Amino acid sequence: MYQYDEYDHKIIGERVAQFRGQTERYLAGELKEEEFLPLRLQNGLYVQRLAPMLRINVPYGMLSSKQLRKLAYVARHYDKGYCHISTRQNIQFNWPDLAEVPDILSELAEVEMHATQSSGNCIRNTTSDQFAGIAKDEVVDPRPYCEIIRQWSSFHPEFAFLPRKFKIAVTGAAEDRAAIQVHDIGLQVLRNDAGEVGFKVLVGGGLGRTPILGSVINEFLPEENLLSYLDAIVRVYNQLGRRDNKYKARIKILVKAMGPEQFAAKVEEEFQRLKEGPTALTSEEIQRATRFFPQPDYAQLDDTAADSDLQKLSDDNPAFAKWLQRNVREHRQPGYAAVSLSLKPTGVAPGDITDSQLEAIAELADKFSFGEVRTTHEQNIVLGDVRKEQLFELWQAARSGGFATPNIGTLTDLICCPGGDFCSLANAKSLPIAESIQRQFDDLDYLYDLGDLDLNISGCMNACGHHHVGHIGILGVDKKGEEFYQVQLGGNAGTDASLGKVLGPAFGAEEMAAVVQKLIDVYVGQRVDGEQFIDTYRRIGLAPFKEKVYAKAD
Amino acid sequence: MPKLIKDSAIAEDNWQLLAASDDASTEVPAGQVIVPLNVWHAQKETLSQRADEIGVWLDSDQLADEIGDDASKLPLIAVNFPGFMDGRGFSTARLLRERHGFTGELRAIGGVIRDQLCYLKRCGFNSFDLDDSIDLAAAIESLNDFTEGYQASVDQPLPLFRRRA
């Protein structure tokens, strides 16, 4: 993992001091509400329905056990004993006291964490693949570049007051697990035929009110040009992005209005004037960043022997077998596996985690996975480097901790925003819908038979629950003060990304579990060998689902 | 005489700002005057004679290119922020300094607030005309909210990665 040096500590320390001063001036009435608002947002602090919400950055999802313990401490001492993993890999506290936020940020700075630019109209935390550095299909580890981007984007003096928020995601694998097509900038690290590292650059993707997939504006940007090119993109956006209407202010609207070719030309023109400048990355800097992400000290293990032992354990223990099947993933190092700890047991808000669970995961990380974990955009936690021979022991420990629900990638591993229970933007509650669906599909054998299925729920069109890219997407809407839910089908966040289509008129909350059941029944009835839900949908289209769901009762 | 922050100190403002007008041929008064861009463009020949007396102000939607190479000959350019959330002026300032060779007084006017001073300075502003309600002596402290930055900027042309030991 990246380790701060004296410069990083100094900069973050100065930020904490700055925000402490701003908070004091606000509380003393010296800083106006409307002026404090963007300043607190740029330090991660929202004001929600019931209390402030503080969003802490988890840069590209990496956390150490030490940081987990600090988060547990913060949850216990400054909050109500739990926190929430967001769909952009960050950590949210729902009940901090505004006056104590500078203290929280100071505590976090001790473990090299911050909330800088985790909201507001600025460059947000860069997200990545939760299997970075360990995935078999990875071409280049994206994390060194993510860290380079983190530093470039933090306190960028030119880009702190953009037209709107700005999100960057980076992947380095064949399969896109970072949703780069629905980010303001999506970057895919790759190698060209000569073996040189560079980036495919996408721009103008996004969800929200105007969901759109990003356009490729550069097929291969050499790695040394990364920051100059990002400067060029964001500068063009800062100058030309709309500021008259907040719903038309994202870069996607600008790219759409100009046309991707025209936008690319404008960026290229700016980039040509910047590329020879001092922001060009040096090979020393790339090497420096890369050194923070070495291959862990893996043992040389016999993969075949490990697999055969696992097979025996599975034969004797069906529950373990299910967990292995759903929550354990292959690893590029023989004898190792990546394990997803599910934060989606039925009855708990998806992505919520308690202080003692954070500490329990820290223990597991220290014992089984080199002291590191990764948060995922599906709101779970991954132990990246677990010896297969220790999986059974880990499973038992994870079970007692409450995060061994064997549902990763299934319908009940749903993505869900905090919704109307917490969020002041929401049109409708999302958590009770999630729970009603989880209860409807509580039979694990049935759930496994349904295979991989992404069900995403957002409580409003801001789309924090990524409903547009769920195979089944649910959007909370408000109709004359009542909460309704619109269903979309056919979205997908992966490499072959697509946006869902609206099924038809919205439903009441109490109908939702039954509606999802009907959709699943259509899939089960129509699927042909080995098809996942999304495959069947793409083959048969919306009509059969619509027909079934809106059919008059017999 | 109104006060502003200039070169990290409280200073008197000797300049008069000519408000925006559709009439580019409007008369420019005597003394030190900051004129709107359209007035500059229309009356450049005569105004150039007054060398050190004439500055130009750009509104937030007037990008640095629109003044272009004229910048290098002017003693002062002001950039207007209609509200402090409108961040276009940050790019304008950098471009004036880094691309158009402007070395004179670069002044932030309009809605800027104390908490932006450090970033404004890093983008090349060296004078700040803040709202009258702001305590300038206290605000000066915010120029140095950060004493180190990761990025290349006008006041530190080398990004941190080129300076790290």
What is the typical, i.e. mean, pLDDT of chain B?
96
- Number of contiguous helices of chain A: 18
Most extensive chain contact? Answer: A-B, 40 and 36 residues
Helix and strand content put the structural class of chain B at alpha/beta
The CATH class of chain B is Alpha Beta
Query: Which CATH top level class of the largest domain in chain A fits?
Result: Alpha Beta
Q: What's the count of strands of chain B?
A: 8
Largest sheet of chain B: 8 strands, mixed
What count of structural domains of chain A? 4
Fraction of residues in β-strands of chain A: 15-25%
Our measurement of the CA-to-CA distance between the termini of chain B, rounded to an integer number of angstroms, reads 47 Å
Largest sheet of chain A: 6 strands, mixed
Write down the oligomeric state: heterodimer
Relevant terms:
heterodimer, A: 554 residues, alpha+beta, Sulfite Reductase Hemoprotein, domain 2, Sulfite Reductase Hemoprotein, domain 1, five-stranded antiparallel beta sheet, 18 helices, 21 strands, 38% helix, globular, B: 165 residues, alpha/beta, Rossmann fold, eight-stranded mixed beta sheet, 5 helices, 24% helix
Walkthrough of the structure:
The complex is a heterodimer of chains A (554) and B (165). With 554 residues, chain A is α+β, with helices and mostly antiparallel strands. Chain A has 18 helices and 21 strands. The model of chain A has no long low-confidence stretch (mean pLDDT 95). Helix content of chain B is 24%, strand content 20%. At the A-B interface, helix 1, helix 2, helix 5 and helix 6 of A face helix 2, helix 3 and helix 5 of B.
